[in-house]
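Chapter summary example.
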Amino acid sequence: MKQSFIRLFFCLTAFSSFSQQAVMTQINQVNSPLVALAPLRFLASDELMGRSVTRSEINVAARYISEQFRSIGVKEVPGTTDYFQNFEIKMLLPTTTGSITFNAGTYKLGIDLIQANGDDITVTAPVIYAGYGMQADVDKIDVKGKIVVANRGGNDSTPAIKARSLRHIKQKLLYEKGAIALIERYQEPDTIWRIINSAFMQEALIAPRKETSFPAFLLNDTHNNLRSLIQTGTTATIKITGNQSRHIAAKNVMGWVEGTDPTLKNQYVALTSHYDHIGLSKQPKREEGKLDSIYNGATDNALGVAAVLNAARYFTRYPAKRSILLIAYTAEENGLFGSIYFAANPVIPLRQIIYNLNIDNGGYNDTSSITLIGMGRTTADVDIKKAAAAYGLDVHGDGRPGLFERSDNLSLAVAGIPAPKYALGNKESDETITNRYHQLSDEVGNMHLPYILKYMNSYVLATKYIADNKLQPKWTKGDEYEPAWIKLYGTDKK
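The structure predicted for these 494 residues follows.
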C-alpha cells in the first residue's frame, strides 16, 4: 500500500511538472520575444510624446491597444464602443478668490484653505463635526443640509496618499446622505501645508465621479483653532467664485476572452494596467548623454500594457476555465481616474469579477524576483508564487505605507475584489529606482529585456493558475477589505 502511494505521488508530481512545462511552452511560443516586446517598444516610443491625457497622442495609444485586441481576437465587452469605455474628465483651473467663515473665524483660499473638489459655491448652513467622517462616524449623526467638518484620513496615523482616497470615500458618503460640503482639518506643519497648497493651485484633472461637484475643502488647522469655533448651532458661510473648467475626452480600453468551464466562465479574472504617462518636460534636460524632454514611461507603464496584451494573445489561443477581462486604464497618473470611472460604471457586474491582477511599475533593482504589492492579503498568493518559480523568480512583498493605494488596483479593492499589484523586483528604494521612476531615462533601451520577458510570461502563467483554480480567491481573514468582499459577493463563508 505504501509503495503504491509513493508511486502515485511521483506520478502526480511528474504530471503536474509536465503540465506546467506544456503551458510555459505555449506561452513562450505565442509570445516570442519580438512579438511580446513590440507593444512595449511602440507605447514607449518618442512618437507618442509621453502619453499624457491632455495630448492627442494618448488617443493613438488607445487606438493601438484596441486594434491589438481586435487582431488578437479579443471580444468587445457589451456597453463599450470599438473596445472603448468613453467618458469625460473635468480639468479645473482653481480660483484664489473665496473663504469660509465660522462665527468670527475666517479662512481664505490660497492661505489656510484649499478647495479640493467642487465648483463655485455661495451658501450659509449649519456645521456639524463628524470625527473622521467615515461610515461609523456619519451613521451616528444627521448630516443632511449641513456642512460637515472632519479630521483628515481615517485615524491619526493615516498616510497622506491613503488620506486622499479616503477623502473620496467621504465625499461619496456625504453626497449620498444629503450633506452640503466637506471640510477636512489638516494639522501638518506649515511647511508641508505650503507644499500642499501650491500643488492644489495648479490646473488639475477632477475625478470622474457622480459626486464630482460635491464641495470638499482642506483647512489648515495646525494650531487646533477650528474646534473652538464649532459650537452647537454654529453656522458657516462658504463663498467661492472664479473657478474655470474645461472637459477632455477619455477612454478606457477593454475586451474579454470567454472561459471554457460551463459554470466558472461566468466569473472573470481582470487583468489591468494603465496606458497613460506624464507627457513632456517643460524644459529639455540632459540625461545619460543626450538632451531629452519626453517621459517615455517604458516601465511605467508601457510594460504593463504589453503584459496584458501578451495575456490576451495567449488566452485567445488557449482559454482558461474562467473568463478573462482585459482593461487598459487611462489617467492613472492623474489620480487613478480611469479605474475609478470603471469601478463606478462597470460594464460587467463587479460581483462577477472575482480577482484583479493589476500590473504597474516604478522601476526595479532585482532581476531575480517580482514584487507583489499586497502579498499575504489574498489567497491567490500560492498560484502567483508557483508561476514565478516556474520562470526562476522569487516573490516578495513590499509593505511600505501607502504603496498598495498608489495604483489602479485600489479602485476594485475598495469594492471588495481581491486586487494586488504585480510589479518588477524592488527590494528597497534606492538610486536605481529614483533615477528611473518618472524620469526621462525610463526608456526601453535602459531595460533588462531578458528579465522583462520572464516577468511578463510569469504574469500570464499566474493568471492561468488563478483562472483555472476552482476555489474563488478571497481576502485573507481580517483584511481591511474583507467586509467589502462579503458585501459584494453576498457570503460570509471565509
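To summarize the output: Residues 95-242 form a domain with the Glucose Oxidase; domain 1 fold (CATH 3.50.30.30).
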